[in-house]
Amino acid sequence: MNHNKTLHVIAVAEDYFDDFVLSKCTIAWQSAARVVGYCLGYCGQYVSDGFFTRRLQHLVTTGKLQAKGNTEKLRDFSIKLPGRRG
Q1: For residue 1, what pLDDT is reported?
Q2: Which of 10, 75, 80, 82 would suit a FRET pair with 58, their CA atoms being 20 to 30 Å apart?
Q3: Residue 45, in any domain of the structure
Q4: Residue 9 located in a structural domain
């Protein structure tokens, strides 16, 4: 993953944006596409929707997020932070 800072591209770890992605999630179910849209709108970097989708899928796999629906397609699943609500 490359990160653009003041017109310089620097290499960063693949999980660089994970905390940012998690900050856009809630304990209520919401569309994964909505979360990716928030990330694209607020990230301030040139990052693709596919990248954020893969990070959501990874966060689900590692238990940091819960999902319902088909996680293979962005528009087919919802996500939430683990917790009571929903």
Answers
A1: 59
A2: 10
A3: yes
A4: no
